[in-house]
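Researcher: I'd like a structural prediction for the single chain below. Treat it as a standalone chain; there are no partners to consider.
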Amino acid sequence: MQTTSLRSPLAKTALAAIALLLLTGLVYYPGLSGDFVFDDFGNIVFNNRIHAETLTWEAISRAAGAYQGPIGRPLATISFALDYAIGGQSAYAFKVHNLLWHMLNACLVFLLCRALLGPAGIASTRWPLWGVLALPMAWAIHPIQVSSVLYIVQRMEMQATLFTLAGLLLYVSARRRQMAGQPTRLRMALACSLPLFGLLSKENAALYPLYYFALELTFLRFQAQDPATAKRIRLAYAVVLAAGALAFALLVIPRYASPESFAIRSFGLEERLLTQLRVLPMYIGQILLPSPALLPFYYDDIIPSTGLLSPPQTLAGGLFLAALLYSAWHFRQRAPTYALGIFWFFAAHAITSGPVNLELAFEHRNYFATLGILLAAASLLIRAGAGLTQHFRTVAAFALVAAIAGLCIIRSATWGDPLVLAMDMVGKNPDSARASNDLAATYVRYSMSEPGSAFVDLALREFERGAALPNSSPLAEQGLILTAAMSGRPADPAWWDSLLHKIRTQPIGPEQHMAVTGILTQHREGFRVDPYRLAEVYEALLERKTTRPAVMYATLADVVARDLGDTGRATSLYLTAISASGNDPDFASHLLATLIADGQVECAQAVADEMLRVGMRLPAQDRPGEPQTR
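Model: Treating it as a single chain, here is the predicted structure.
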């Protein structure tokens, strides 16, 4: 009786899911000891909104607004606050939580593959359970997924994908019932609404209608037992796709594809779109050849395409992608699994490879897209091995899974040691300024703030190498100046000159802002730098197009007043800050109160006079020179 129960479909499914979870946990375990990486710092380490000591309602509300955007990403940022409440600034709790999300997604991928391709699936050619299990295993432990699972901030991607996968499962179930003539309103309503919750984690959850449409083109073919229902399905897709195209043309493109939107980038809209003709084939190669050596993580050294033949790989990549898409359309009925995989890959990149002003390439953009390529590849392999015995195909499939697992363990272990990871990134991509900056910053951390440490010399040499790389940001110069200040060494004037040149000539983006404001922050915290050069680069930043100009002017004024002792110039800058705020009374009142508290009476009097001149009400308790009663 026990043997019979273990052979039941439910027991086999449960055992397969357990094997999937164990394998997934095993391959990522070595990477859990790693540190925060790249955007983790801005979104988590330095984001005070998610630093919740306890999960009070106030802390949760604050964390929900921790990401800037139309609706923010509250589900993800609240989960970061939960991790902070559990483990503080330790990256371990965050990474364990990421792994749990990924394991849950792996189970959903398994159930989805089972619903589509399994013994009771909807495919005309069904796969045995081993084939249905091998595919989600390969997806879950693919080395490209390391930069989603262990790169903490990409929990946003994983959470959005979870709701998409759940929606896909419900959609397949609902459509099967429609084809059988059974009631399905509730399931269909859930299938169409559940993925919308993914928008609370990341905007690419909005792509789910494209994934559903791909299912209709391949497996489902808009069929229903009731002809009227089938007609309504076709009409619904026509309306949704037309509305989506219209919204894209009228809302997305004007907002994100304008020249102003690309002002923070070193490339424009046309260059970005052309470059994707090279980037997408690169992704496909990384998925089909899962070697860690092909996965550098940073891609800031990619030279944008300026034409179809500049470089020639642009045209070659475009022709390859067109042929791939055509093959999927042509074989959508005869080879639906292959076609579905190709359609899903392109759909997954509809935003990240479209006209939005995102960076050119990142591996985590393939979190769902990897499933598409693996589906297509598995379909071709199964067809090619149709004449082989089932035993041989089973052994070959799991041998391939074992090889992928070994490669993933290697990459995961690399991510488990910050210094090894930083050295590995530079080794794979020595032209990446970001990889160089990471390595130098890691050397600084390993110096333990000991001025005589050999790691200080290593850091300075690596920062200098990174600063000289083509198109490198000013973060390397920031690192040089602050490392010298930390170790009590004089800063080379050439570093300041280089920083100033980059601020004046490069597009002003996040890295340019961080380079200057980071020096100021550390200067205020005790790592003293040349205040005259600091004021010079800060003023150069202000001369360029920048965000929050009122705060920037007030900050510069503070440097001029405190460190340079130039009250007249500081006063002028404070008044400019008020003007830049649009004569905001709240901003002006806060500035006045701060100046009074700091004892800057002359500057405070000038601000008070300006407030009265433009018609602002002067709070009685904030009158310069009078004792405060608060």
